[in-house]
Amino acid sequence: MKWTMSRHQYRVKKRKATPILDPVAIGRRVREARKARGWRQYDLAMVSGIDRRVVGAIEIGIRVPSRDAGIGLAVALRRSLEWLYFGLAPGGKLWRRFGLLTTGGDRASNCQAPGTALVKDEG
Q: Which of 2, 5, 66, 112 has its CA 20 to 30 A from that of 58?
């Protein structure tokens, strides 16, 4: 940090912008994955542990899933959280940026929600 005027007012270095969540894109991904599994909103709500009305609000883009709802949806749909929120596949730029992929071991599998696979979904 660099002091500019007084010890209480200082200039902070600029940080890289974080990705902004797009509720409509998140809802589109959830709806497509749900329909690919042949589920109704009620079925997805029961498996993920969230209310059916919340699933509907997420699908039409009114709500962004909270952390717990996002984990429940990711586990139920057998997808990663990165796919749910940002549309990124495991092993993409976000994984490399935060050092989740290593050359020696499979550290990325430890960072996923239980029940999600790093392989292609067969459903």
A: 112
Residue type at position 68:
D
Q: How confident is the model at residue 34 (pLDDT cuts 50, 70, 90)?
A: very high
Which domains are delineated in the chain?
Answer: 23-111 (1.10.260.40)
Give counts: helices (H), strands (E), the chain.
Answer: 6, 2
> Is residue 7 predicted with pLDDT exceeding 70?
no
78 vs 92: CA distance, rounded Å: 17
The pTM assigned to this predicted structure is 0.60
Please name the residue that has the structure tokens 């909103």: 41
Give the separation between CA 73 and CA 54, rounded to whole angstroms.
11
Measured distance CA(12)–CA(33) in Å, rounded = 42
Q: Which of 101, 72, 103 minimizes the C-alpha distance to 89?
A: 101
